[in-house]
Amino acid sequence: EVQLVESGGGLVQPGGSLRLSCAASGFNFNTYTMNWVRQAPGKGLEWVSSISGGGDSTNYAASVKGRFIISRDNSKNTLYLQMNRLRVEDTAVYYCVKDVPTWGSAFDIWGQGTVVTVSS
Amino acid sequence: DIQMTQSPSTLSASVGGRVTITCRASQSISSWLAWYQQKPGKAPKLLIYEASSLQSGVPSRFSGSGSGTEFTLTISSLQPDDFATYYCQQYNSYSLTFGGGTKVEIK
């Protein structure tokens, strides 16, 4: 069964850091671009970041560029999101998401999400 | 960034009815558009990719059409399980962007 399981969410103060992890199983992890997508409470979906299968190419939303770092360990089938200098507006459910097998970043597999709350 | 505009933001429909949701891109995205369904407290589910390709396991009452800047998602005969929020997403170029969502409510 194809599965993505996020962990690492929690409550953090503004300016703090947090690292999210996503454990993947059931597919050839190293052949797929992986992504993080977030959803603030009561709001819509926002793409955060993407990383290529080999980890050599990354992209970020303007709202997180320079503060967040996406990475992956293909030997452990795990995706990461290092979040630094967190802001109140980063409060959201963070989803780990897999690209479709065909070209392009449509997202066919989603994790259950992990909640990040930034508050003093 | 490419802006995605969905309409309407909310619609009320009856079971068995036909539903059409529109998504417009601020510039051409060819056919690089996906549609998702999201229910409260759950992760989104992919319905359509490449504007009109039905994701495996998705009922055939869902269909997508369009190219360039204008796209539609149609539900041919609304079922009780279809009451949810629907999002479009462009993946023609980074930054990837989603529409604001359309909530389909029971009439």
What level of helicity do the residues of chain A show?
Answer: under 10%
Strand content of chain A: over 45%
Output the radius of gyration of chain B.
13 Å
Q: Tally of extended strands of chain B?
A: 11
The share of residues in extended strands of chain B comes to over 45%
The helix-and-strand class of chain B reads mainly beta
The poorly predicted ranges of chain B are: none
Biggest chain pair interface: A-B, 21 and 24 residues
Q: Which parts of chain A are unreliable, with pLDDT below 50 for 5 consecutive residues or more?
A: none
Euclidean distance between termini CA atoms of chain B: 36 Å
Multimeric state:
heterodimer
Number of helices of chain A: 0
Summarize the biggest pleated sheet of chain B. 7 strands, mixed
- The number of helical elements of chain B comes to 0
Order of helices and strands of chain B, N to C?
A: EEEEEEEEEEE
Task: Describe what this molecule looks like in 3D.
The complex is a heterodimer of chains A (120) and B (107). Chain A has 120 residues and is mostly beta strands. Chain A is built from no helices and 11 strands. Helices cover 0% and strands 51% of the residues of chain A. In chain A, a hairpin with a 7-residue loop joins strand 9 (92-99) and strand 10. Chain A is globular, with a radius of gyration of 13 Å. The mean pLDDT of chain A is 97. Chain B has 107 residues and is an all-beta fold. Chain B has strands at 4-7, 10-13, 19-25, 33-38, 45-49, 53-54, 62-67, 70-75, 85-90, 97-98, 102-106. In chain B, a hairpin with a 2-residue loop joins strand 7 (62-67) and strand 8 (70-75). The A-B interface holds A 35, 44-47, 50, 59, 61-62, 95, 100, 102, 104-108, 110-113 and B 1, 32, 34, 36, 38, 43-46, 49-50, 53, 55, 87, 89, 91, 94-101.
